[in-house]
Design a protein that fits this description.
The protein is α+β, with helices and mostly antiparallel strands and about 425 residues long. It has 16 helices and 14 strands. The two termini are about 35 Å apart. The structure holds adenosine-5'-triphosphate (ATP) and magnesium ion. Magnesium ion binds next to loops.
Length: about 425
């Protein structure tokens, strides 16, 4: 029988750690059995940037993109291969371009989620456009920034409508801070958002296809300590709600590699940031959770390619809105219905069956790799590329400890069957 070959393209920027890990696991995978006794093999390739004809045919079957959010050549190539060539992309480039943080807030408010009160305020400085002066003089209404902040209530956050990487985010406790932050916002378009303050825990979830990891996040810690290794840090119901919110956002927007930030206070779950086209996958910050992320990424890509899952470029918002508008339905009822819709979209049951059947050897394979010298070399190389020389020993020991802890937990899990 002939093997079906699948080529996975990686569109990368500065990252080396997770791509090396992904490439290594894929190399070790071997042929995978598909429906009807078919056999499938996988290669990956780092995609280079070059001129492309709009009618050129790409060689890739699936592409993992980490560049398009700031680099427009690959962004436009992704749109072309999604529209013309049926290349499977984990995140729809269309919704990620048009549905930034602001649209994501609107959509999830429309679905009844507890997004904190948010107001968009006009630019502080003139927009660079010859028509602006006339338009603003004629149509921009004066507004009372203090009154808006009082209505929302202090403390609050000011942050760009399309934010990312903490750029331009400030916490605001009083009118003086409000004016300083607004004056500094310059040409950025800003939201004012009510702070969830205090909160009990910050739960950050990372979703990869049909899998979601909910992690306790500590934003005030340095990067390598932000994700705490702590299981069951949420009551079961809040944990399930965090997973549902992440999956709902992703199913709604057609995203399959995204992180979702939620603040949990008094048993309520408040989503505050959930449109991250290029979620953190780095070994130094994910540490304990890194092997899970790589494994989930490999499994999802293989599942997609072997089962012939088609990317959906359309969004089916009506089905979500119908649930939101169901007369008499409680918040819990709606969450249950959203979860069903999202799990259906991600073919969760089929994915887990596929993993249990065709990918049954992968958990052992990843554990072996993490326990071996190749992984340790990756860890050492990564630390050397990220930290100054005098900190290498400290960070190598720190990461070895956390990854070792994962390997021990994973080995116990596999042995217990
Ligand atoms: N409404 C809020 N209540 C409480 N804390 C908030 C709120 N909004 C933002 N924060 C805090 O500010 C941080 C940055 O805000 P946000 O995540 O919206 O911006 P970002 O630019 O996407 O940052 P990042 O790239 O780190 O995710 C959050 O991780 C959180 O700690
Ligand atoms: Mg954020």
């Amino acid at each position: 029988m002939t093997d079906t070959r699948h080529l996975i393209g990686l569109l990368l920027g500065t990252e080396e750690d997770w791509p090396r890990a992904f490439e290594e696991i894929l190399r070790r995978l071997g042929p995978i059995k598909g429906p009807g006794g078919t056999r499938h093999v996988f290669d990956s390739e780092r995609i280079t940037i070059e001129p492309f004809g709009l009618r050129d045919r790409p060689r890739h079957n699936l592409v993992i993109d980490r560049l398009a959010y700031w680099y427009y050549v690959p962004r436009e190539w992704l749109k072309k291969v999604a529209l013309m060539d049926g290349v499977y992309l984990l995140n729809s480039p269309f919704t990620f371009q048009s549905m930034e943080k602001h649209a994501a807030y609107c959509a999830m408010m429309r679905l009844g989620l507890k997004v904190p009160e948010t107001v968009l305020v006009p630019y502080k400085n003139p927009v660079d456009n010859a028509r602006y002066a006339y338009t603003a003089a004629r149509y921009n209404q004066p507004f009372d920034l203090d009154a808006i902040a009082r209505r929302i209530g202090y403390p609050l956050f000011m942050k760009p409508f399309d934010g990312g990487a903490w750029r331009g985010v400030s916490q605001i406790r009083n009118p003086a801070e409000l004016h300083t932050a607004y004056d500094q916002s310059g040409e950025m378009l800003m939201h004012l958002q009510k702070a969830i303050d205090p909160y009990d825990v910050f739960a950050r979830s990372l979703s990869i296809g049909a899998e979601t990891m909910v992690m306790r996040f500590q934003p005030d810690q340095p990067m390598h300590r932000r994700y705490a290794v702590q299981h069951s840090f949420l009551p079961a119901s809040a944990g399930a709600e965090v997973v549902t919110i992440g999956r709902l956002v992703n199913a709604f927007f057609r995203w399959e590699l995204n992180s979702c930030e939620t603040l949990v206070a008094g048993g309520e779950v408040y989503p505050i940031d959930y449109a991250n086209a290029c979620p953190d996958l780095s070994l130094t910050s994910l540490h304990y959770y890194f092997p899970w992320a790589i494994r989930a990424l490999v499994k999802w890509c293989v599942f997609v390619l072997v089962t012939g899952r088609q990317a959906r470029l359309d969004t089916d918002t009506g089905r979500f809105f119908e649930i939101a508008d169901t007369p008499g339905a409680s918040y819990a009822d709606k969450l249950g219905a959203y979860r069903e819709l999202a799990d259906g979209y991600f073919e969760s049951a089929r994915y887990h069956d596929f993993c249990a059947g065709s990918l049954a050897h992968v958990d052992e394979l990843v554990l072996d790799w993490v326990a071996g010298s190749g992984f340790d070399q990756l860890l050492v190389d990564t630390v050397r590329s990220v930290y100054p020389a005098h900190e290498h020993d400290q960070f190598i020991a720190h990461l070895r400890g956390l990854v070792g802890q994962w390997a021990a937990d994973e080995s116990a899990r596999l042995r217990s069957g």
